[in-house]
Amino acid sequence: MISDVISIGHDICLIDRFEPLLYREAFLKTIFGDEELNQAESRNQYKSQYLAGSWVAKESLSKAFGLGIFDWYLPDAQWLHSQQKGGRMWFFTETCGLNPRGYIVKTSVSYESNLASAVTIVLKS
Predict the structure, then answer these.
(1) Low-confidence ranges of the chain (pLDDT < 50)
(2) 8 Å CB contact between 92 and 76
(3) Which superfamily does CATH assign the domain made up of 2-124 to?
C-alpha cells in the first residue's frame, strides 16, 4: 500500500563509465562485495553493464535511506542473483551501516542503450 512507503531513491549512470574500471580490482573491491564481483565476472561481455546495474542499485539504496554513498561500507550490501527468488535481491551483512531490519527494501534496475537506472523503495515491514 502507498501508505507503507517510507522513502524512495533513484540513480542513473552511463554503463561505459565502468569499462575502464574493470581492470582496477582494488578499486572495485571498495564498492562491490566478492559475490557481486564473481557474478559480474561470469557475465563476460556484459560485465560493465552488470557492475553499472549494481552501482545504481547501491546509489538508489543509499538515497532511499538518506545517506551519502560513502556513509556506509558499500560491499556490506550486495545486489545479487538469487536462484531461489529467480532474480536479483539484496543481501545485507550483519554489520551493514544501513540497518535495513524492520523494512522491506525493493529495488528495480533497468537498462536502455548505454544507461543503467535504479529505483529503490523502502516500505514498512
Answers:
(1) none
(2) yes
(3) 4'-phosphopantetheinyl transferase domain (3.90.470.20)
